[in-house]
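Below is a filled-in request sheet from our internal design queue. Each sheet records the structural input a requester submitted and the sequence that came back. We keep these sheets so that new team members can see what a complete request looks like end to end.

REQUESTER: design group, bay 2
PRIORITY: normal
MODE: inverse folding
CHAIN LENGTH: 274
BACKBONE (tokenized):
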């Protein structure tokens, strides 16, 4: 029996209207579906919650090309009803996001490979900084989208991190971010993830990592970084890297917060109260 755990907003939108579609990709942990104009994924429980994920204990049987239908709010794969949870997942708000910069940078500094193609990591950061510091969000995203390997190319994950953070910072308007996602020169699964990143929604592990970094919780942040490292070839870490770049170089980030590390403040407070 398939037990559904939680559902992202992208899945909910895809189930609103009766429509037909197909399975467009199928893996051990996830089945990607296109229904009408919507793309989302059925995933097993170990996959993090996210806007495009309907998590469940077991995946339905199905292969690429199989028929999918939405009928009166019910999802059918190869004419079998697939229960989708009514528990809606949305990321928690993080009002202190600029406090995450220092610890996030410390945690990700040990990532062995955040490169795209053969470009060294520091050159990639320089390139992104040159766009982000002048508020050229489209330039930053376009410079990396489609580059790298994987179901979602590494560059797409970096761009998704940038868009997610720009939304959280209120840097550019939503219409601009959504247009960047809509016109991205990549495949439809990546565009779907980018579209939700444009409204500030990514996978749960990234949001939880940012919260831990905002609160100066180094042990928790390192544990969450390890969980991100298990996602795809390097997808989770590339996603966090993009978020860090936007946080560090966005014109909307206060100068005092660009390399701010809350742990230093906490340590100083502890010393003065002893």
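RETURNED SEQUENCE:
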């Amino acid at each position: 029996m398939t037990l559904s755990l939680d559902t992202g907003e992208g899945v909910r939108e895809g189930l609103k209207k009766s429509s037909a579609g197909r399975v467009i990709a199928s893996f051990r942990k996830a089945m990607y579906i296109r229904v009408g104009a919507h793309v989302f994924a059925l995933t097993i429980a170990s996959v993090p919650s996210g806007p495009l994920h309907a998590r469940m204990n077991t995946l339905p049987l199905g292969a690429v090309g199989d028929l999918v239908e939405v009928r009166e709010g019910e999802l059918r794969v190869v004419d079998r009803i697939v229960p989708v949870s009514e528990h809606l997942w949305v990321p928690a708000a993080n009002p202190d996001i600029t406090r995450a910069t220092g610890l996030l940078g410390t945690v990700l500094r040990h990532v062995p490979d955040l490169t795209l193609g053969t470009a060294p990591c520091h050159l990639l950061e320089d390139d992104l900084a040159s766009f982000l510091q002048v508020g050229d969000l489209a330039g930053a995203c376009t410079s990396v989208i489609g580059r790298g390997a994987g179901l979602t190319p590494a560059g797409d994950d970096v761009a998704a991190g940038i868009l997610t953070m720009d939304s959280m910072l209120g840097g550019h308007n939503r219409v601009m971010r959504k247009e960047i996602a809509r016109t991205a020169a990549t495949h439809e699964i990546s565009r779907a993830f980018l579209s939700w990143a444009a409204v500030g929604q990514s996978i749960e592990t990234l949001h939880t990592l940012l919260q831990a970094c905002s609160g100066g919780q180094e042990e928790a942040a390192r544990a969450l970084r390890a969980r991100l490292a298990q996602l795809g070839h390097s997808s989770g870490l590339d996603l966090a890297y993009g978020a860090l770049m936007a946080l560090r170089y966005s014109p909307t980030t206060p100068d005092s917060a660009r390399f701010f590390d809350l742990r230093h403040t906490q340590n100083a407070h502890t010393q003065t109260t002893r």
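SHEET NOTES:
- The two ends are 57 Å apart (CA to CA).
- Confidence is low (pLDDT under 50) at residues 110-114, 262-274.
FILED BY: M.R.
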